[in-house]
Amino acid sequence: MIVHEAPVLGGLGGEIAARISEQCFYHLEAPVLRVGGYHLPYPPARMEHAYLPDLDRVLDGVDRLLEH
Fold first, then answer.
1. CATH number, domain at 38?
2. Which terminus has fewer CB within 10 Å in the chain: N or C?
3. In terms of residue numbers, what domain contains 51?
4. Distance between CA 63 and CA 29 in Å, rounded?
5. Burial class of residue 34, CB neighbours in 10 A (0-12, 13-18, 19+)
6. Rounded-to-integer distance, Cα 28 and Cα 15, Å
7. 2-16, pLDDT tens digit by residue?
8. Residue 42 — pLDDT band, cuts 50, 70, 90?
9. Pairing relation of β-strands 2-7 and 34-37?
10. Rounded Cα gap, residues 54 and 57, in angstroms
């Protein structure tokens, strides 16, 4: 699982996930999951807490990975 502050689509985590999938595909037990910011423009500082991945979103990602 890759967690980062950038948007999930088009962010650095997508590049890392692609590289892992290309190089380690046959060794993975689950797909590479990305948890990041929403596919929206970065918000002003006072709204940042609603945009960035929080503990609940990360734990939801962990639950999805454990289902595999």
1. 3.40.50.920
2. C
3. 2-66
4. 14
5. buried
6. 17
7. 999 888 888 888 899
8. confident
9. parallel
10. 5
